[in-house]
């Protein structure tokens, strides 16, 4: 039993009090323990090994906690990165959707159109006579389709020069975008456009589909590939319905696109 006035120390593990003499603690050590207060921990002989085990356990838990915190920071960073990627991916999907909607609308607007190249631009009257009505692009296109190509049943709805305003100093003829009465009428005009090759007055005039921006890009890429392959010796190739094929395999589809000078 430890009396109130005796020199004693308390084991921090088992909370028991011990005489300094019984524990072999000198007066100097005793003073040191008292002076240290809560910063110094003392364990009795029976608890000392247990305390070391506890300290090792605490240290292990501390190290594990630090590892978990580091792993948590890593996972947090990955989650943030995934969130950014997901956001970018979602925005890309929305962008693609907008492009697809725009492309579909452009195709719908052009579905009855053809583009005619190299028709001379003029605002003069017939034979230069100022008393006669000027010959319009609409008149010229009707003559071309109805009389030259013999498609009198095709309706010419409208004609538009592109670009709408001719740049100063330009000498070449702007292309004509021609809207016809139906998709079937458009296909008919494209199918018989090859007849212009045999007409001396209309040689150099070409009729092609009115393509969207994406379709023009694809068409350009196909024509570039066709040119490259021909230069490498594949001379028996043509473009037919959006594909590069050999002339023997093209058949009727080649005739469908045969009006274009860059196809064959």
UniProtKB/TrEMBL annotation:
SUPFAM superfamilies reported in the protein's UniProt record: FYVE/PHD zinc finger
InterPro entries xrefs: Znf_FYVE_PHD, Znf_PHD-finger, Znf_RING/FYVE/PHD
Top-level division of the source organism's lineage: Eukaryota
Gene3D superfamilies reported in the protein's UniProt record: L1 transposable element, RRM domain (3.30.70.1820), Zinc/RING finger domain, C3HC4 (zinc finger) (3.30.40.10)
Domain PHD-type per the UniProt entry, residue ranges: 4-47
Presence of the UniProt keyword Zinc-finger in the record: yes
Keyword Repeat carried by entry: no
Entry-linked Pfam families: PHD
Molecular function per GO: zinc ion binding
Keywords for this protein: Coiled coil, Metal-binding, Zinc, Zinc-finger
Ranges in a coiled coil: 58-85
UniProt-recorded name of the protein: LINE-1 type transposase domain-containing protein 1
Protein species of origin: Holothuria leucospilota
């Amino acid at each position: 039993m430890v009396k109130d006035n005796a020199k004693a120390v308390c084991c921090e593990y088992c909370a028991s009090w011990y005489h300094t003499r019984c524990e072999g603690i000198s007066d100097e050590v005793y003073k040191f323990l008292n002076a240290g207060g809560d910063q110094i921990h003392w364990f009795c002989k029976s608890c000392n090994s247990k305390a070391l085990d506890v300290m090792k356990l605490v240290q292990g838990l501390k190290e594990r906690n630090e590892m978990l915190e580091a792993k948590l920071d890593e996972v947090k960073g990955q989650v943030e990165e995934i969130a950014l990627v997901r956001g970018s991916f979602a925005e890309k999907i929305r962008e693609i959707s907008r492009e697809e909607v725009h492309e579909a609308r452009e195709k719908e607007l052009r579905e009855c159109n053809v583009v005619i190249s190299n028709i001379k631009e003029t605002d003069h009257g017939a034979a230069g006579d100022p008393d006669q009505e000027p010959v319009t692009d609409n008149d010229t296109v009707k003559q071309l389709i109805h009389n030259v190509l013999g498609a009198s049943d095709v309706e010419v709805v409208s004609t538009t020069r592109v670009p709408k305003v001719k740049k100063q100093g330009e000498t070449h003829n702007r292309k004509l975008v021609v809207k016809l009465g139906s998709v079937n009428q458009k296909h008919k005009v494209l199918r018989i456009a090859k007849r212009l090759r045999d007409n001396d007055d209309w040689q150099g005039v070409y009729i092609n589909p009115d393509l969207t921006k994406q379709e023009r890009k694809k068409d350009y890429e196909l024509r570039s590939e066709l040119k490259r392959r021909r230069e490498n010796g594949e001379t028996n190739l043509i473009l037919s319905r959006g594909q590069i094929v050999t002339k023997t395999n093209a058949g009727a589809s080649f005739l469908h696109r045969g009006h274009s000078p860059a196809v064959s």
